[in-house]
Amino acid sequence: MDRLSHTPVDTPPVLDRIRVGSAPDSWGVWFPDDPRQVPWERFLDEVAGAGYSWIELGPYGYLPTDPARLADEVGGRGLKVSAGTVFCGLHRGPGEWDATWEQVGRVAALTQAMGAAHLVVIPSFWRDDRTAEILEPPELDREQWAHLTRGMERLGRRVRETYGLDIVVHPHADTHLDTEEHVTRFLDSTDPGLVGLCLDTGHYAYCGGDSVELIESYGERVGYLHLKQVDPGVLAAVRAEGLPFGPAVQRGVMCEPPNGVPELGPVLTAAQRLGVDLFAIVEQDMYPCEPDRPLPVAERTRRFLRSCGA
């Protein structure tokens, strides 16, 4: 009697600590109001239809800012909110605090009302992300670094005391917090109890960093993930031409998984090994885009992430 031969089937790891979501960014939304962006109702309908359970708020004012209405709109589609997002320029010193806190307060209050626990904080751009106008020197001096680190610690403490949220700082292309050198310096200079890290795999790769290595080296600081990939060929041209981030996105530098770098499977596996619950929010970065483009990309990306175990 012949024995039946069985071919081993590769099964993805069970990434049960990773909570996958998406964001308005994946629908080409960068601004509170822009005629080239899809209406917020369509975003909510499509992100739910694509198989995601979690979303970010996106730019303040894109989604409804009345908490009761937003809760109805989000909850009625089976969605939940993972975080809000703010930009700030705390490296400029204490004179920046009042304006920063006014903005943070609006976003944090809505984030808290939606039951989320995180506020993603992105440093301000040193050059305009569309025109390439140089707004500030690309490198901070020693005093500005001190303002940045102390300011983020102050912000983390105040946000937690006032709204019960944890801040996770997001390294971003064309900001002063971008490369491995800058990110590790920032982490080494800030209190882990006050300031976490939002690791955006695409931005970190865009600036030459290794996401898996960062997770393995500074895992205790990683409190949140943004998932995206970079097209290496487009990135090489972007660097050669000195393009700012906005035109680079229009060129297609951020590509649909799994067509770019870093490989997201190893990133998610490294994050799972941390043994903590982590949001992993897809951010496709494709402003501006045709309104029918985001949904198929989002559906394919969700299937791909499931194939990775998430």
Automatic annotation (TrEMBL):
Cell division found in the keyword field: no
Domain Xylose isomerase-like TIM barrel: 44-307
Keyword tags: Isomerase
GO molecular function terms attached to this record: isomerase activity
InterPro entries membership: IolE/XylAMocC-like, Xyl_isomerase-like_sf, Xyl_isomerase-like_TIM-brl
Keyword Manganese: no
PANTHER family documented for this protein: HYDROXYPYRUVATE ISOMERASE, INOSOSE DEHYDRATASE
Protein's UniProt name: Sugar phosphate isomerase/epimerase
